[in-house]
Amino acid sequence: MKFFLFFTCALITYSCNVLSQIPKLPKVTDNILINKPLTNELTNDEVISGLKEALSVGIKNSVNLTSATDGFLKNSEIKLPFPPDAIKVKEKAMALGLSGQVEKFETTLNRAAEEATKEAIPIFVDAIKNMSVQDGFAILKGGNGAATTFLKNRTSAILDSTFAPIVKNATSKVKLTEYWNPLITKYNALTLGEKLNPDLDAYIRQKAIDGLFIMVAKEEDKIRLDPAARVTDILIKVFGSLK
Question: Which domain does 159 fall in, by range?
């Protein structure tokens, strides 16, 4: 009996020693497992830095996509169609067997838009630099597209004025009028009513700006929704705090 009691006590003592050597596992709520800070740990500076970083990534990706050859032309979401104001010209041209001229004209419209968007990044960067703390928190909590809306409100007028000479040069570079003039001349010669000749440069500027913001919004939403798109530590911290 004494031997049995001695053996039992020795076994218990050994078990306790072994268990004491096992490291304590962290709780699920510890940051080591969560791998991101809680929302209330974010500082104002971190929020602003995160939003600026998100916009910087978004505009860089968007401009790279839209300014490339076929960036507009082969993207059904943003492709410039025949100007709605001149749709009668297209219909008449197609009826006269000028579908090739119509296609070439639509291609050159998109080439001009692709050329114009190359100059958008400096304008966006200036707007991002002036983001306030209030802007930052409103954007962070504003949901999908909030950062894009902020950028659009701040830059649309500047983009239009900046794009004006660029589009003018671009339409000359891609020889837009060589494809447009025969179409409009033929139409106006055969039509007894009001003569048409829409402002193509204004049309290209507006569609280029619209298309650019469509792509910026897609990039922003990607960062908000897809952790894999958060390519820097500050993006992980700020957007990872959102539920």
Answer: 37-240
